[in-house]
Amino acid sequence: MLLTQKQIEDLNKVANKLPIQRLIGYAKDGTITEDVLNQLTSMNSERRSQLLAIIKAPKPVPAEQQEWSAITPHLSQKDDALLALLTAYISHWEGTMPLGHHIDEARAAIAEINAIKEVKEWDELDKNSAKALAAFLRKYPQTSHQPEIDNYLWATVECNTDEMQCKAAARLYLQLLPNGMYEQEAKNIIVPPSASSSAPAGGGGQPAPENDTIRNSSPIVTPPITPMPSSIRSLNLVDTWDWLAANPYDANYDVAYQHFMELKEKEMLTMREQLSAYSPDRVFYLLEKGIITEGELLNAGLATKESLDILRNRDEIIESLPDINVEIAKCRKECAEDHTDVFLFGIPSTGKTCILMGLIGSPNININTVRAGGPYACVLEQFLDAGLTIGQTPKDFVATIEAEIQDGKDKHLLNLVEMAGEDFAFKIADNENGIVSFEDIGVGATNLLCNNNKKVFFIIVDPTAKRVAFNHLVNETDDEGNVRTFLVRKNVNQKIILKRLVDLLAQPENKKILKNVDSISIVITKADLLGNDQEREDEAYRRFLDQHKNIIGPLVDLCRENGINAATNGQPMLYTFSLGRFYVGGVYQYDPTDANKLIEVLKGYTEITKKGNFGGKFKEIFN
C-alpha cells in the first residue's frame, strides 16, 4: 500500500508508540519504504535501524516469480522461442539476483538448448566445405567434434592440386587449428623444408633419414598473418561479409572476419539503441544475406517470432488500419468544461503519442470515442492492438480526448491534450516572432491553455536523444503574394527547447494560465532502454540531471511562486514510461503498467476529487 503524505505525517506522530511488530509488518509488505522511513523523523534510532535492515534485506520479487512461472511450462520445448524467453529473463534479473531467483536454472536450460542446436547443426553441416567447417568452429570453439573437424579440414587441403590454392587452404587450417593434428604438414606446405635438409646425405638422390637432428636443423617458420589491406578495412558490414564469402582462403581472412564481427556488434548495438527507429527493411536485408540470423535476434532479445511476423506483414497490417490523417481531420479541438486538462509537452519523436496510446489502452480509464478527438483515439487503439506505432503527427496537429477514471463512487474527468512536437518546438517554445504570451501565439493548443479548466502539465523527455532532426514544412510568400511551400531539414535541441518552455511559462504575461495549473511533472520515455524495473528510475534520474539540470531550479521557483505542486513544496516529480516491451523495427508488446501509474497520478488532480497528493512510485528531482 502506498502512503499519502497525510498518512506519513500521522504515522510520524506515533512512530515510537505503535507495537514494533506492526511496524515490522509494514516494512515487510512495502508500506514503509526507505523514503517513508526517512520522513519518520520522530522514530528512535533502534527502531529505525531494525526497520531499515528489514527494508534492505533481499526479498523475492513478484515480477521475477511471475516471469519464471510463465517460462516454466515451456521448458520442455528446447527451441529458439524458449531461448529468447530465458535470455530475456537473465537480462532482467542477473543484475539484482532477487531472493529465490532462477538464474542458474535458466543458464542450464540455455546450455542444454545450445547443445541440442550444436548437434543439429553438426548433422546438417557440409563437411566438405572449408568455409562451413570454419564457421562451425568459430561458433562452437569448445565443440567435442574438433578432432573430426581437424580431419575434414585437412582433407580440404589435400584435395587441392593447384599449389597456390593448397597453400591458401593450409594457411586457413593453421589459422583455425594452430595446434592441429596436421600442424607440421601444413607448415611444410606453406614453407617447404630447405633443399639441404631434404637432400640425400651422401648423394644418390635418396631422401635423408628423418631424425631429430635433421628435423631441428631447419626449423619451419609459420608466416605471420599479414594486415588486412586498408581497402578492405574500410569496407562496411555488408561489403565485408561479401568479401569473406569471396575470399575464404585469403591470408587476411581472420583479420577480415574480426573486422566483420566488430561491425556486426556495432550493428546489434544500434538495433538495441534504436529499436523504434531501426528500419524493418534493413532487418530483413541482413537476415536474407545471412549476416544476422533470426536466432541471434531472438537470443539478444531484439525480436520474437511474433514481432518478426508483424514486421514481415507490416505493410499489409497498416493498409488494413484506418488512415490516421483522415481520422485526425474528423476531430474537434475542444476541451470539455469542468474537466482537468492534461497537456503533453515535448519535441518531435519523444514519445508523446506513445503515452497517449498507453493511457487509451489501459483498462483503468474510459475514453470517449465520439466527442472531440474520439476518432483519433480509436485509431490509436487499433495501432496499439496491432503492436505498431504511428509516424510523426502532422504540423498544426492538436488532439483533445475526453476521458474519465472510475475511482469507487467518484469519477475523475479529464481532457487529454496532445500537440504536434513541431508546433511545440517552433510555435511555442521557440517562436520566430519572439512572442512571450500564450494568448498571443493563438495557434492550436495555446487557445486551449487559456481556458478556465484546471490543468496538469507533463513535460516529456527522451533520455536517448539530445537533438532530433526532421522535415519541417515552411510556407514562404514572395513580393507578389504567391505562397511557396517547401521542406526544410530542421534540427531541434531538446535541452534548449525545454529550457525555453520553462522560461516562457515564467513570463508575467502567462500568470493567469499558471493559476489553473495544479501540477508540472517530468515523464522520461523509452524507459525499456534504461535497464530492468529496478534500474530504470535511477538511470532516468541520472540522465535527466546530466542533460537538463539547468531547468530544475527555475522550474521549482516557478511552481512555488504559482502554488503548483503544492503537496511537494513546488518540487516536480519524475516518472518513467514505456509503452511495453519494444523489439527491433518498432514492434512492441503492450504493457499497461506504466500507463496505470500515470492514471494513479491523474486521480490526484481532478475537479471532482482532490486528494492533495498522488500515488505512484516517484523520485524527487530537486533536493
Q: Can you describe what's shown?
A:
With 623 residues, this protein is an alpha/beta fold. Helix content is 48%, strand content 13%. The strands form 3 sheets. It has an 8-stranded mixed sheet with strand order 2-3-4-1-5-8-9-12, with helices on both faces. It has a two-stranded antiparallel ribbon with strand order 6-7. The longest helix has 22 residues, at 103-124.
Short description:
The chain is α/β, with parallel strands linked by helices and about 625 residues long.
Descriptive key words:
31 helices, 8-stranded mixed sheet, 623 residues, globular, two-stranded antiparallel sheet, 12 strands, alpha/beta
Largest sheet: 8 strands, mixed
Mean pLDDT: 81
Give the CA-CA distance, first to last residue: 25 Å
Query: Helix- and strand-based class?
Result: alpha/beta
Strand order of the largest sheet: 2-3-4-1-5-8-9-12
Put simply, the count of helices is 31
The total count of strands amounts to: 12
Task: Tell me the layout of helices and strands.
Blueprint: H1 5-13, H2 20-28, H3 34-39, H4 45-56, H5 62-71, H6 80-93, H7 103-124, H8 130-139, H9 146-158, H10 163-176, H11 183-190, H12 195-198, H13 212-217, H14 230-233, H15 237-246, H16 253-273, H17 280-289, H18 294-299, H19 305-312, H20 314-320, H21 324-329, E1 340-345, H22 352-361, E2 366-367, H23 374-386, E3 398-407, E4 410-419, H24 421-429, H25 438-441, H26 445-449, E5 455-461, E6 467-477, E7 483-493, H27 494-505, H28 511-514, E8 517-524, H29 536-548, H30 552-561, E9 573-576, E10 580-583, E11 587-590, H31 593-603, E12 619-620
Parallel strand pairs: 1-4, 1-5, 5-8, 8-9
Antiparallel strand pairs: 2-3, 3-4, 6-7, 9-12, 10-11
